[in-house]
Request: fold
Amino acid sequence: MLSHLSINNFAIVKSLQLELFKGMTTITGETGAGKSIAIDALNLCLGGRADCNMVRPGEDKTDITAAFILDNNLNAKRWLEDNELLESGECIIRRIITNEGRSRAFINGNPVPLSQLKALGQTLINIHGQHAHHLLMKPEHQLTLLDQYAGHQQLIQVTKKSYSDWRQLQNQLKTLKANSQENLAQKQLLEYQVKELDEVALGETEFEELEQQHKVLSSSGQIAMTCQQTINELYEGEDVNAMALLHSVSHSLVELADLDPSLSHLSSLISEAMIQLEEVNSELRHYADSIDVDPAHIAEVEERFSKVMTTARKHHVRPEDLYQYHQEIKAQIEALDCSDEKFEQLENEVTEKYQIFLMAAEKLSKSRHRYAKELNKLISHSMHELSMEKAQFCIDIVSNEKHSAPLGIDQISFLVSTNPGQPLQALAKVASGGELSRISLAIQVITAQKVQTPSLIFDEVDVGISGPTASVVGKMLRQLGESTQVLCVTHLPQVAGCGHQQLFVAKQTKAGKTETQIHQLSEQQRIDELARLLGGSTITDSTKANAKELLIAA
Reply:
């Protein structure tokens, strides 16, 4: 519950410190005094829209602090724990607005973004404004009220998640369909390219081998001639050759070794060189004999090499990369073939996910129908208490797959019949403003009983209500205050008298500056204030007695 509110330099408030308590607290004051100013400040503190005009003229900033006791507020505690902001059984929220329009927010002394302030605020306070009946005209707000009363948040989360999963796959399917024509054209082009490459059918290492073979065959004549020339110089030259020279050197070294044995090892070295020369000669002969100078074979290799080179140029790749390019194109075609399978698989998955969503949405619908029946009775009864004895309230729920949305398949409409024989019709068609105010109040009071926030604020929701009906409204709100904290801004003495405590708002002008003050009334001050609300400018003993009766009756 809200335990303390500190307001500094907000609008016409200089400095204000409010201690708040359990039960029902009513706030009254003269017209124009700013009875709702504390509510406006609290709303700003909880993440409401800021404006530099909110800063009191002549000051540099507005500073608002709200303290909450979290004893029974499990939702707020859980949120604070999840965001690592829980420090004790109390939560302190602070908002600062500068006259330049800059805003800073704090939770338990920690700076936080405005989004976190708003999220936490929803677990702490539920504000019902004087224009709430305008919101009630909107189907989405009607749905929110029903869901809040039903409290089936888990069903809503499951429905939202299943809807998101279905829509995500459905979007993927749409994208796949949009690309299918483009994929078909791409596949046809790739298949044409693969057909050309299949005709060449180049092996993985074939080009390197073909290139070497082409190089050798194209130079076979020169190679054969060079081989023969080398063999002659090594072994077969008639005038001179390397082998004959080595034989001569060998004989000379033998003669030297006879004269000086220390040179005997040189002869061995020459013998080894002669053996190596014989091996070179043998390999060269074998290589020269193996050279294929068959014109038909040369032409075949030349044609194959030329075809590979031409194909590589046509596909804008290096010939040594042609094999890899061929494999990549075949892989692309295979992937496009798989996309057809994926398309069918995705269609099946979309259908499956939609069925899961429908199952979740139908469970949510059943829960809504169940709680709608309960609300119909409670709100109708509440309307009867508010001097609409023959009125009927009905929540119309139309469930249709065509209405598929994150919150299910339901369309909600609040219907009302205010007179016997009158058909149920949408709230928007209710003619009387007074009736609309009472219907709105009945709905707010009943739904507020199930909203899981420990503090409820009613900001002049009793506009358009008077007489005996006002007494009923006061008792309704007081009964609500027995189980939760209720703050009610009102101009009705019948409602103000039902509060467990009462605050009075006054406006004063000092040194040419206007300032709003709020203070708690004693029992006698409450009687005087109720008498003022009853009698206006003329307060008699009878008026005071009537005011005392209102206070005692509460």
